[in-house]
Design goal:
2 domains; Alpha-Beta Plaits; alpha+beta; 5 helices; about 20% helix
Amino acid sequence: MKILLKIRYIGTHYCGYQVQPNGVTVQQRLNEAALAVFGYDCDVVGCSRTDSGVHANLFCATVAKKGMNCLETEIPVERIPHALSAHLPTDIAVFDAQWVGADFHARYDVREKEYLYRFYTGRIRDPFEEERSYHLPALAGEEAFLRMNEAAKTLCGKQDFAAYMAQGSKVVETVRTIYRSEMLREGDILIYRVSADGFLYNMVRILAGTLAAVGQGRLSPDDVRRITEKRDRSLAGATAPACGLYLNRVIYPHDLT
């Protein structure tokens, strides 16, 4: 058995989730906390490789003794979130833990992921939205919202999303199924919500950038449909900044989250 953690973090000061030699990452901080709590090196395997500056409302990761598929501890599972969080910086928190089988994989067993992308449309910048959203006043107004929502709906279903993959990616299979693609509004905040069985590299940020171009009148909803069909990255919008992106939900076959 190993432990499945549910985690929230603000990604502003991290070089993404996965450990790398060039900067501090969320996984590095979790590894350090796990060593402090359990007393030995652990493998902390995440559900996704979020990029530098990306946030998570719900991120899942398993913890096991390094080189093994099990965790040995006398700490009650309900106390593990508090124990780990006590050794984490204030922008990372573990809020739940549960036992899962040794064969469970936090990344490969994911059935569906949901992301949010937040646009702040206020005329004047808001310091509370700095590094939490993409400030784009040009998206203010009902017309922009309706155009973006119409375009977002065209992305639903099983389609080839090569047009929304970062150039240089080595992924060959670019067909994915998007279950939900819609715009929401909360005052001056526009939220793009998208869930799928998987995402290509930078896919959500490119989708968000393309929808922003629709809201600004540089593309139409029909253009988005044609861009998807042509599978040409050069026709889609710019890659939106990482600061507006949140991993929002992770769903496993047995509803562990």
